[in-house]
Amino acid sequence: MSTTRKIAGATLAAALGVTTLSACGGSGAEDGAAGASDAPKSKTVTLVSHDSFNVTDTVLKEFEQQSGYTVKVLKSGDAGAALNQEILTKGSPRGDVFFGVDNTLLSRALDNGIFTPYQAKGLDGVKPEFVLDQQHRVTPVDSGDICVNYDKAYFADKKIAPPQTLDDLVKPEYKNLLVTENAATSSPGLGFLLASVGKYGEEGWKDYWSKLKANGVEVVDGWEQAYNERFSGSAGGKKAKGDRPLVVSYASSPPVEVLYAEPQPAEAPTGVATGTCFRQVEFAGLLKGAKNEEGGKALVDFLVSKKFQEDMPLQMFVNPVLKDAKLPDLFTKHGVVVEKPETVAPDAIAKNREQWVKTWSSLVVK
């Protein structure tokens, strides 16, 4: 999910300002001199991730105290860019664990052989539908849904029911209302394209996008521009005088709008069209050639622990994959449950992604 969850950009940037997180554990001096026969094992374990990774300090420190490892987080841009760097450094990775590859990029990561198989402790507590790699080269960590969000005030003022399905979006009453991200440059944009593939199939999705274009869909480069500039329902969009009351974003966007509002409203100002969603699943894996393989295994175990899973929603605005992990009140009160999201098999995505994006670009952008 990648470079998602940027709704509170400035606030999160401040929270994510440091890339090395430590509590107890060794320093570089404790790692021992190279080649020394009595050099102790490294007490630093490095997590390579996209920029959206975050965890509460106290939760991380508890892991460090219990495991004896110091965690270093190396953030590497969006999910695609971070994965590209690991593929380029295959066998000599920059860290021990990679977090952030999702089901749209999973086959590419697995085909390039950058992970060492490892069955995480606690994997039996993960919902089985999220375990997409039976060889356990990657471990599911979180899930989230890319969905169309709507501006509640706009539709109430116009006395128009907000759309709920992909079919709705091509109806005349929603003409010139939707803004989406470019599928060639944006993770949510690609996810929305995949939603149409999942819904309408190999042939039908092209006809759908032709209708959507005829109905006035606007395409912008990325999520930040779509949500915080063009969308009339977000705090940023209101300031920028955005005039599009429909936007491709996330099912977790309404709770975040509440979280960062001052004062917090009793009801989220935005809603989710639950029949427009594509499900993303993000994974972590032990990198092949990791310098601290044992520390990497402990870190993967931590990412599926109940402590991390219950901390994660308000840190990265995603859903836990652990069966017994509880969502925070903010999510249960202001979020939605997407019962039947669209999905596309990772191998089908890997086989067709480039051609789908190329065709989409010729239909919608050019």
What does this structure look like?
The chain has helices at residues 9-15, 57-67, 79-88, 106-111, 152-158, 187-214, 223-230, 235-239, 253-259, 293-303, 306-311, 313-316, 329-334, 346-365; strands at 44-49, 70-75, 97-102, 115-116, 139-151, 178-181, 218-220, 246-250, 270-287, 319-320. Mean pLDDT is 88; it is low at 1-39. The longest helix is centred in the middle third of the chain and has 28 residues, at 187-214. By secondary structure, it is of the alpha/beta class. It is built from 14 helices and 10 strands. Helix content is 37%, strand content 18%. Strands 1, 2, 3, 4, 5, 6, 7, 8, 9 and 10 form a 10-stranded mixed β-sheet that branches. α6 (187-214) links the parallel β6 (178-181) and β7 (218-220). The protein is globular, with a radius of gyration of 21 Å.
